[in-house]
Write a structure and sequence with these properties.
homodimer; MgtE N-terminal fold; CBS-domain; Tetracycline Repressor, domain 2; 3 domains; three-stranded mixed sheet
Chain lengths: 458, 458
C-alpha cells in the first residue's frame, strides 16, 4: 500500500464544499472527476452528513450516481440514507444494476420502501426481486444489463443490436451476446470475437455456442469462485428455475465479493462484528456493535479467571506465580491464534474439510511440541533469573510447554468444529480459543505449583 | 463458505494415486479434469511429496501445467520444487506468463537457475527479466501474451491476426488488439467490438483509439486498483521506460492480487509471518516461522510482566487482584484490536491517511469512554460479587475504564504510526498494542491498589 498520489496535506473535501456552496454543478463535477476514486472516498470520509448531502444535492443526478459507484458500499448507503426519497430514487435509478442492490441492501427496510415508492412500478418490482437475493449467490451478484439476441437474428442484426446497446450499457466493454428463444430461455452464447469471422447474413443459430455454461440464480459464491477458476470466462449467464435468462455474473463481481469475504473474516476475527465500521458512523452505533462482542468476551474472561480464584491460596504462598500468569495466558493465545489462522486459510482454499479434525490435530501436535519446548525453556530461564528458584522455572516452563500443545490443538481444530456446528469460525474461534487456553494455562501453572508448594516456598 | 460439492468422505487423492501407479495418462488426466479446482487442491493437500511427484510424472506436460494453474501458488511451487529441472522447465514453459513468474517467484534462487538453464536461451532471458519485477507492480502482474498489431495493418489483416492468435493464446477471450509502431511503441488500442463496425479494408490507424491509457511497468498495485476502479477496462497495456509495449495487466490479475494482499494481512495479524503456511510444509519450517514471531512476543510479554513484579508486595497483600489482572489484560487487548482492525480497514480503503493520528484518536476517545464505562462497571460488579469488598471493584473497574480508553487510543493510531515509520502495520500493530496495554493495565490496577491499600486489606 503506497501513499496516495495526492499530497497528504491537501484537503479535497474543503474544495468540494466550497464549490458546492457556490452551487456550480459543472465546476463541482469537474473537480470531483479530477480526483482518483480513493481520494473521492477519502474526501467523503471527512465530511459530516449535512455537508456530504449538500454536495450530492448540488451534483446532477448522473454525476451523483457516478460518485456513489466510487465509494465503498457502506459509505454510499450512508449517503443515500440522508437524501430525500425522491432524490435517492433518481440516483439509484442511474446506478448499474448490481450496485443498486448493494446500496439498497445496506439501508433499513423503511428507507428502501420509501425509495422504491418513488420509482416507476415495473422498475420497483424488478428491483424488489433483485434485492431479495442473498448478497452471496449468483442472483445477488449478477448484472441485469446484457445483450439479449433473438434466436432468429442474423449476424448483421446482432451487430446493429450491439451498436445501439453500446449507448445504453454502463459497462464499456461488451463481452458476449446471449441468444434466447421466444420464452426468454437461454439457447446460446456469442463471444464478440466470433462475430468477426462470420458473414453478416449468417443465422445466429449457426455460429453461437450451444448449450453454454450457465449458473443458477441461487448458486453460492464459493461455487462461482470454483467455476471462474476452472474456466477462463469473463461472465457466465444466470438462469432462474425455469431456465429463463435473468442476468450475467461477471468475473470481476465474483473476485470483488471474494475479496470482501476475506476482509470481513479479518474484521470479524478482531471483534468487529455486525457489519463494517467506518469512523464516520454514529458513535452510539460503533460503541454498541463493539460492545456486543466485548460483553460476551468479558463473561468468558471471568470464567477463566475463576480458575485463578480457585487456587488463590497457592498464589498467596508463591506470589511470583502471579507475574507469570499473564505471560502464560498471552503466549498460549498467540500460539493458538497462529493455528486458527492456518486452519481458516486452509478452509478457505479448500485444502481442508471440516471433518478432518484428527488430521489437523496430528499436524499441529508436532509444531506444539517443538514450539512449546522452546517457549517453555525461555520462560523457565526468565523465572530462574527473576527469583533464583529453579522450581519456579520448572513450574512455569512445564505449564507453558503443555499449554502450547493444548493451544495449537484447540486453535487448529476449533474453526473446523465451530463450522460443523454451523457457526461462523471467523467470529467464534478466537474467543473460544482464548477462554479454553486461559483456563487450561491457569490450571496447569497453579495446579503444578500446588503439588510442589514446599519446593517453591523454600 | 459452503460445503464443497463432492461428499467429504471421498478421498480423491487415493484414486489419483491408483491411476498414477497404473501409469495410464489418459485415465489419470480425465479423472483429474472431472474434479473441481478446489478438489484438485484438496487432493494435493493430502499427498506427500513422493506421491505428488509420481502423479505429475505420469501426467503429460500440458496436463501437468493445467494442474499447477489450479493449485495455490505455494502448492504449485512446492510441487515444481520436487521435480527434475528438465521436467519442471517443460511444465513452466506451458504455463501462462503471469503464472510462470508466480511459481518461480516462490522457489529458491538455485532451483530457479536450474530450471531456467533447461529453457531455450531467449525464453530464459525473457523470464529472468520478468521474475525480476516485484510481485506487486504492473510488470509482475502483467501477461506477456497479447495481440500485437502493426500500425500499417487493415481491419481485414487484424481479423486474420486474431484468428491465428486464438490458437496459441491461453486466454479464451480476446479483449483488445494493441497497435504498435516500428519501434514497438504502443500507438493505439482496438477494442474487439470496434472491429465489428468497420469495413475490412479500413486502415487500423483510422479506427484505433489513439493515446490509450497505459501504465508503467513499475506502477504499484494500489495505483492499479485505483485505475481499474476509475475505468471499466478489462486490461490496460503496460509500457517500459522507453514507452515500448511489454504486456497487458488484466483486471482479474489486479483483483486477485488485491485479495491476496487482504488475506495476507489477516495471516500476518495472527502471527503467520514469513509467508503462507500450508500444513503439508515441512514441520521444522512451520515451527521456525511461527517461533520467529512468538519469540519476539515472549520478550515483549516479559517486559509487561515486569510491571507486575514491581508491585509484587501490593499483590501479596491483596491477592484477589491477581484474579483480575488477566481479565484487564485480555479485555484491553480485545478493545484495542477492534480499533486496530477499523484503522487497517480504513487505511486499505483509502479513507484514512497515516498522518491523521489526531483525528483517529479523537474518534476513538468517544468509543473508549462509553465502552470503558460499561466494561469497567461489569468488572467492578464481578469483583464485588467475588469478595464483597467494594473497594476492589472500584480499583479494577477504574483501571479497566481507563485502560480501555488507552487501548482504543493506541489501537486506532498504532497502525498509522507503524506505517509512517515504514513497517508493516499488519505484523507490528498487534504485538505493540498488547505490550503497551498490558503494561499500562497492570500499572493502573496495581498502582491504584497500592494507593488505597488500607481499604483493600480491611
Amino acid at each position: 500500500m503506497t501513499e496516495p498520489a495526492v499530497e497528504s496535506d491537501t484537503r479535497p473535501w474543503e474544495e468540494l464544499l466550497k464549490l458546492a456552496r457556490q452551487g456550480d454543478e459543472s465546476e463541482l463535477s469537474d473537480y470531483l472527476a479530477s480526483l482518483p476514486p480513493t481520494d473521492q472516498a477519502f474526501a467523503f470520509a471527512h465530511l459530516d452528513d449535512e455537508d456530504a448531502e449538500l454536495i450530492v444535492n448540488t451534483l446532477s443526478v448522473s454525476h451523483a450516481a457516478e460518485l456513489l459507484s466510487r465509494l465503498s458500499e457502506a459509505q454510499a448507503a450512508g449517503l443515500v440514507g440522508t437524501l430525500s426519497p425522491q432524490l435517492a430514487a433518481a440516483i439509484v435509478h442511474e446506478l448499474p444494476s448490481d450496485e443498486q442492490a448493494d446500496v439498497l441492501g445496506e439501508l433499513a427496510d423503511d428507507q428502501v420502501g420509501a425509495i422504491l415508492d418513488q420509482l416507476p412500478e415495473d422498475e420497483a418490482t424488478d428491483l424488489r426481486e433483485f434485492i431479495a437475493y442473498n448478497d452471496e449467490v449468483a442472483g445477488g451478484l449478477m448484472n441485469r444489463e446484457l445483450i439479449r439476441i433473438p434466436l432468429n437474428e442474423t449476424i448483421g442484426g446482432v451487430i446493429r443490436i450491439i451498436e445501439s446497446a453500446l449507448e445504453r450499457l454502463t459497462e464499456g466493454d461488451v463481452r458476449y451476446g446471449y441468444v434466447v428463444d421466444d420464452s426468454d430461455r437461454l439457447v446460446g452464447v456469442l463471444p464478440m470475437q466470433n462475430l468477426l469471422f462470420s458473414k453478416r447474413s449468417t443465422a445466429v443459430g449457426d455460429v453461437m455456442i450451444r448449450e453454454p455454461m450457465t449458473v443458477h440464480d441461487q448458486t453460492p459464491l464459493d461455487d462461482l469462485i470454483d467455476v471462474f477458476d476452472s474456466y477462463n470466462f469473463l461472465g457466465i449467464p444466470v438462469v432462474d428455475a425455469d431456465q429463463k435468462l435473468v442476468g450475467v455474473v461477471l468475473r470481476q463481481s465474483v473476485d470483488y465479493a471474494a475479496g470482501q469475504a476475506a476482509e470481513s473474516d479479518y474484521l470479524k476475527s478482531q471483534g468487529i462484528v455486525g457489519g463494517e465500521e467506518l469512523r464516520t458512523m454514529p458513535l452510539w452505533l460503533r460503541s454498541r456493535r463493539r460492545l456486543s462482542w466485548l460483553s460476551v468476551n468479558i463473561l468468558l474472561n471471568v470464567g477463566a479467571a475463576s480458575v485463578v480464584a480457585f487456587f488463590q491460596d497457592t498464589l498467596q504462598s508463591v506470589i511470583a506465580l502471579a507475574v507469570f500468569l499473564p505471560i502464560i495466558s498471552d503466549m498460549s493465545g498467540c500460539s493458538g491464534n497462529q493455528a486458527v489462522a492456518v486452519s481458516m486459510r486452509e478452509l478457505s482454499l479448500g485444502l481442508l474439510r471440516p471433518t478432518e479434525v484428527l488430521r489437523v490435530w496430528i499436524q499441529e501436535l508436532g509444531v506444539g511440541l517443538i514450539n512449546g519446548a522452546v517457549l517453555g525453556l525461555l520462560v523457565a530461564i526468565a523465572a530462574l533469573l527473576y527469583n533464583g528458584n529453579g522450581y519456579l522455572g520448572l513450574v512455569v516452563g512445564t505449564a507453558l510447554f503443555a499449554n502450547t500443545i493444548v493451544a495449537v490443538s484447540i486453535g487448529g481444530t476449533v474453526p473446523l468444529i465451530v463450522k460443523r456446528f454451523g457457526f461462523d469460525p471467523a467470529i467464534a474461534s478466537g474467543p473460544l480459543l482464548t477462554t479454553i487456553t486461559d483456563m487450561c494455562g491457569f490450571f496447569l501453572v497453579l495446579g503444578i505449583a500446588s503439588q510442589m508448594i514446599d519446593k517453591l516456598t523454600q
